[in-house]
Task: structure prediction
Amino acid sequence: MDRIRIVGGNQLNGEIHISGAKNAALPLMIASLLTEEPLVLVNVPRLADVKQLERILENHGVDIAVHGRRRGDTEMGGQRITFTASDIVDTTAPYELVSTMRASFWVIGPLLAREGHAKVSLPGGCAIGTRPVDFYLDGLRQLGAEIEIDAGYVLARAPGGRLKGASVRFPKVSVGATHVVMMAATLAQGTTTIENAALEPEVTNLAECLVAMGAKISGIGTGRLVIEGVEKLDGAIHEVVPDRIETGTYAFAAAMTGGEVFLRNARPELLQSALDVLVRTGVDVTAERGGLRIKRNGNGIMPVDVETDPFPGFPTDLQAQFMALMARSSGVSAIKETIFENRFMHVAELARFGANIHVDGQTATVTGVPELKGAQVMATDLRASVSLVIAGLAARGETVVNRIYHLDRGFERLENKLSRCGAEIERIAG
Result:
């Protein structure tokens, strides 16, 4: 199993190209099931999760064509991929495919909307709390779906072959449920209203793509979406939004190590709350044409308290990375996790660097230390694994991060991007 070896202590200086967002690319790929015409996605990241979803979509009969670079495309630019679901050949998403990635469960919305029935395995993926799919299923039930669970599979059927518009209100903000119900509603008969919809940029990105495909959606970017169902959707060309989590991750890495990094393609409006927090730690953050410049001033890292919240609040997907930064702060900070109940698995691994972190319920209290020391550590989930990389970049001596298949799920060419900026980092095969 591959590992990453890091020798810490180098500043990061240079430019990092921000890839397309995994969390936007996956629902956009799934949206291809809604139309028999080609959906062309631009700026798709090269990630293990993307490849896995391609396999799932191919199982349903989607033809996938990856295009070569065009004139003017850079080496670090994302892929251009065409997805064509002329015929849905199978409405079953089997356990062996869905179990590896949670987002693959979202195929239930388009399959049900277009074909009138679906059989989808209950999901797997990162072990971050329970993350139940109740909201997804309740939303589909309100659109008229008949749903039962049998032997680990969700069996869903639209009576008469078509879903019906309805008023859906989520008891709690859920990105996945918003994706699923919104996609399903585009082909439903009548009008659907989604209340307490997620505001995340990835949801907006999907909604804009659906509109380009002929869907009628109003309220995009707000907590209330109104979707007027149409008979069919068309093909479209759509760009995957830049990855705000990758942007934040590299911004925190630059803050941790010192130096000056330009994050090309970064869009600050997608993670303003995290950038505001970063400024409070004593880092200069400047929006420039084409991206974002991160520069650590000569002072130490100031402690800042944060609480994770749905967008536009501080993202839960940056909590682990921020904790690594706070481990080197000049005081005490409190980090409260409000989204996932089991998202402090990285604490024990950060402690191996010498970090001083105490967890009480949903709150981690981090007392900064003058120095972290390299260590053998193990990744527990996607975002936790990159927090260990950030700690390793600043730690004295050698760090080895094991089980990095988690990293490959969500960070494109991580070691390449960091080494170009002066980090001593390499992948060790085997």
